[in-house]
Write a structure and sequence with these properties.
The chain has about 200 residues and is an all-alpha fold. It has 2 domains: about 55 residues, Orthogonal Bundle (Arc Repressor Mutant, subunit A), CATH 1.10.10; about 130 residues, Tetracycline Repressor, domain 2, CATH 1.10.357.10. The protein is built from 10 helices and no strands. α2 packs across α3. The longest helix has 26 residues. It is globular. About 20% of the residues are buried.
Length: about 200
């Protein structure tokens, strides 16, 4: 048997190399963004810091916003997976809260770095706009499971209700995060989210 064939089920060398370079770009860029500010940091600076050409950098990421928010799609998938893993009989609001908590507990940032990154997102209009666009995609991912939790899937209004629930939960998350950033990270994020949900539910 030729052991050089490798594992056909896993990513090839080229893909592993690409992922490693992407990870290095993100790590380096985030450090520069946090040190010098998002708007002040250029793609050329990032490329020089890593030791690659600007043209090579653009093959991996088209914009600075893509570097910061590139993993938001993965976060959306992780959130959907966390929601689907909740007990089948759990009501939508409780399931959404637990799924969001699981997602944030899985993020690979210290509280201090997460505050810096989130503050940067909220301070940049271009980043904020792209983040909200990505969050809309999260809504689309969450709707099918919420429809299932609402039951009576033949009801044509169930998808509308599910979309409203998902959008509202994410809006509450955004409101809680903004309050947390404004407080300098001093308020409790979970409590802020619960307060936002309570206000939304009346």
């Amino acid at each position: 048997m030729d052991h050089r064939a490798g594992n056909p089920a896993g990513p090839g060398l080229r893909e592993r190399t690409r992922r490693a370079v992407q990870a290095e770009i993100v790590t380096t860029a985030m450090r520069l963004f946090l040190e010098h500010g998002f708007e002040a940091t250029t793609m050329e600076q990032i490329a020089n810091e890593i030791g690659i050409s600007r043209r090579s950098l653009f093959r991996y990421f088209g914009t600075k916003e893509d570097i910061v928010l590139g993993d938001h799609a993965d976060h959306g998938e992780a959130l959907r997976t966390a929601l689907e893993a909740r007990p089948a009989g759990e009501p939508p609001w409780e399931a959404l809260r637990a799924a969001l908590k699981a997602l944030y507990e899985s993020l690979p940032y210290s509280p201090e770095d997460f505050l810096k990154i989130t503050s940067m997102l909220h301070a940049s209009p271009s980043l904020r706009a792209r983040q909200l666009e990505k969050r809309q995609q999260w809504t689309d991912l969450l709707v099918p499971d919420i429809v299932r939790r609402l039951g009576a899937t033949a009801d044509p209004m169930n998808e509308l209700r599910a979309r409203a629930l998902a959008a509202c939960a994410l809006a509450c998350l955004e409101a809680a995060t903004e309050a947390w950033v404004r407080s300098g990270g001093t308020i409790d994020m979970e409590r802020a989210f619960d307060e936002a949900v309570a206000a939304a539910r009346g």
